[in-house]
Predict the 3D structure of the following.
Amino acid sequence: MIRTAAALLMLLAVAPLRASDAPYVPTPMSVVDAMLDIAKVGSQDYLIDLGSGDGRIPLRAAARFGARGYGVEIEPHLVRGANAAAQKQGVADKVRFEARDLFDTDVSKATVLTTYLFQSLNLRLRPYLLAKLQPGTRVVTHEFHFGSWQPDQKITITAPDKPYGDPRSDVMLWIVPADFSGLWRVSLPGEPERELRLEQRFQMLSGQLGAQPLAEGRVNGRSLRLVVAGAQTYTGTLDGDTISGEVSRAGAAPQAWRAQRIKRGRMDIDAGTETPFQSGSPMGDSR
């Protein structure tokens, strides 16, 4: 069961997923391969597929890359078929499938998470995924996005075996961001300390360093990139409440910099149901 704080209470009031909420439509194999490629799946990955259908995504990840996998599916007959396929393909030691509600699934160990779900289900999942998945986890969807959480990468591929609509599909990648929001004390060799104020909405940062506003700010997993006044670029990695990295300035060699968080903020992961861009599919859900 989900036991997170206030941002996730909305999920507790939602009825369990029904089969009719997510009708099964197989993901074209060209899309499966594109999803695994955009996530850069490798042998060290643990892939969780929410709404795994016949199991083709975890099965392909295991057979092609040696990745471990876990699929959850609401239809028991599809789960039986997927586990049988894992035995037949010789990857049953790497992947398994269970019949269960995707909203009652522990996703915290995933390094890659895949979905092919209705827009409405993705939006219900969004706060749970951001709370449970570790920073740096790659999330990949076919066709349907996460509303105002914009993808870090999006590609459109040809899918001649697509069972409906235009024979093209959008594949989107998100990198789960660490929370950098709050007040920081920045140190550079030979310079006075300055305050860095960061506000964060998903992977986007805004704020100011001293009196200088940020021109750009972005998070990728536990890493960040800040551009200040167009001439200084700070890159760094988060470890607990410490950022360590380098700052590049025009005409000067890169310098080490460090920041210590002195007051925590909270990343904005609003639980709205907005859909700011269309992904190009006339259908709802599939798995």
